[in-house]
Amino acid sequence: MAKSNQKILTDFLETIIRLVSEGTSDTYAAMVIMEFTERNSAKFPFARYIHIDSNKIKINPKINSVDSKLIANFINKEVNTLFSDLFRHLLKRKMDVTVYDELNEIEVKI
After folding, report:
1. Would the pLDDT of 2 be above 70?
2. I want to staple 29 with a disulfide (CB 3.0 to 4.6 A). Which of 5, 20, 82, 109 is the partner?
3. CA neighbor of 5 nearest in space, from 91, 108, 109
4. What is the pLDDT of residues 57-95, one digit of tens each?
5. What is the rounded CA–CA span in Å between residue 36 and residue 26?
């Protein structure tokens, strides 16, 4: 059964922040993700539903009305823009299998 866009994005962002913060800090990881989100809000208007405050991810449930293909495009762009091949390999290896399956289900390619 497919998870909600809100759940998928929350799980994905928590994973990204956790992995990035291993080499930096939670604050830096959250800042990078929020900067990407803000810079891409024109192409992905639903990005305004995503907020990270004090490393706490808040996603408005309105994001569930967005086509999951657009969510996948957003995640794919984020991964391909922000992260190297090496980090994507690490992400695949360290990502919880449930999160990986959720992303695969909406056609995210990591």
Report:
1. no
2. 20
3. 108
4. 999 999 999 999 999 999 999 999 988 888 888 888 999
5. 16
